[in-house]
Write a structure and sequence with these properties.
With 45 residues, this protein is mostly helical. The chain has one domain. It is 42% helix and 0% strand.
């Protein structure tokens, strides 16, 4: 996120909106990855 060349087209302001839920961006990513792992075969991962 800090390196502007990484995912250059990503709206970083929008991603920071997650902090309004009380989660950090890192916590949200961890939560999201864990949720995807739990249904990996169902979603084709």
């Amino acid at each position: 996120m800090k390196e502007k060349r990484f995912a250059a087209n990503v709206n970083r302001e929008r991603i920071q909106e997650i902090e309004k839920t009380g989660l950090t961006v890192d916590d949200f990513i961890d939560l999201s990855l864990e949720a995807m792992r739990s249904v990996a075969t169902e979603i084709g991962l």
